[in-house]
Amino acid sequence: MKLLKFYDKKKVSQIDHDIVVTENRFVFDKPVTLILRENLMSFSGDDFTIKDTEGVSYFKCEGKALNIRDKKTIYDLNGTPILNIRNAILFLKGRMKVYAGKDDKKTLASIIPKTSIHSRKYVISFYNISEEKEETLDMKCDFFSHSCGIFYGKEKEGSPMVCKIIKKIDARSLLTNKDNYYVEVAPGIDAALMAAIAICFDELKNDDSREKKY
């Protein structure tokens, strides 16, 4: 039994139905790997450009570090807001909500920790448009928060991993202190939602360090 588990080498798998939470146009029939880079010129340090490994643009994301007032919004390439991400409630640490568009009228997904202190396991609940029912995903992070796997079911029961998020460390990230993430999404899985979850992963990882700073 391994004491430390990492998800960067594990393969993503397609499941027997699509997961559509935002729109069908963000669900692809082939695997896609999105790259989330913090813009070097961003004063907030938390604006992302989202492209694939071939340099093709998919989404734009703008927003400040999340607190009770601020949010992050993901747009399509035409500038139309797809979803926004917010901390759920100030006193419920580690809980995050994904809403449709730019407001908080319609909840798309909730990210809830399985334990109350320094959790590395989360449950993502959402309404799947393609199946017309509520479903959940399990999100498991490694000890150092350098990678996480998103599973359709429980990992210990051999459930498929539909997405993995990997923090890439290179010379530029070391010099600039800007985090880069590779988000590998299986076919049939809502890529906009997975990009939002990757941003949540970054926010959750940085939560403790922000508290210490302020």
TrEMBL record:
Pfam families according to UniProt: LOR
Record InterPro entries: LOR, LOR_sf, Tubby-like_C
Protein known as: DUF567-domain-containing protein
Family: Belongs to the LOR family.
Annotated source species: Neocallimastix californiae
PANTHER family: PTHR31087, TUBBY C 2 FAMILY PROTEIN
Stretches that traverse the bilayer: none
Signal peptide: none
